[in-house]
Amino acid sequence: MTIAIDKRPQGCAGTIMAMIASDGTAAAPHARALTEPTATLRDIADAIHALCIIHGSFPGVVDLAHRGCTDPLTRDWLEQAVTAVSGERALLVRLTAAVGPLPSTPGQAASQAAILGQRNALEMLSRSDRAGCATGTAIAFVLDWVAVRGVLDSCARRMALPAGTPFAGAASQAIAMLKAIEASASIERAMAFGAQQMLAQHRGLWHLLEARAAARHAM
User: Fold this and answer.
1) Rounded Cα gap, residues 43 and 33, in angstroms
2) What domain of life is recorded for the organism (predicted)?
3) Spatial separation of the C-alpha atoms in residues 85 and 69, rounded to whole Å
4) 108-121 pLDDT, tens per residue?
């Protein structure tokens, strides 16, 4: 699925969608490389294991945002997103089991600490008491997962496993909800902050995984 982006973003919706296009997983060279037929199974396995550490446990980003949400419109969307993300979590766990053990990589302890730090940062954003922050985090997560799902689908094909339930519908619902939100300037700023920080964690993850791949290839 390709998310249509207005070249002249206006308001919170345009800002967040522009962030997804420029700073999200779709713009990460390593994530794109993992969807290519030339990607090594070791590199794919490394990414799947890392994603499972960050997003394979319950409660996740969307679950935590849903728990703390009081806005009726946003809560209705989050309830639907919780179901969609639950399926993605199950797919991620299945893929992690299928790809086998984590590939041996120099600097494993430091990498593990960094990945756990990213998971903790996302949890803090999703639990934030700042009105709008957790919502922005959850929206950005769902929209960015479209590109992450491409990596998962590539792994499933490589392992000859059934594809998961399509995720495009969840992303479309997120876009519709984002465009429908009417919020104060302070809440919109908080939403943009949550989205920005969520994307920063994913961006950092892809940079880390790219460095780990380079270290393995140099062994």
Assistant:
1) 10
2) Bacteria
3) 17
4) 999 999 999 999 99
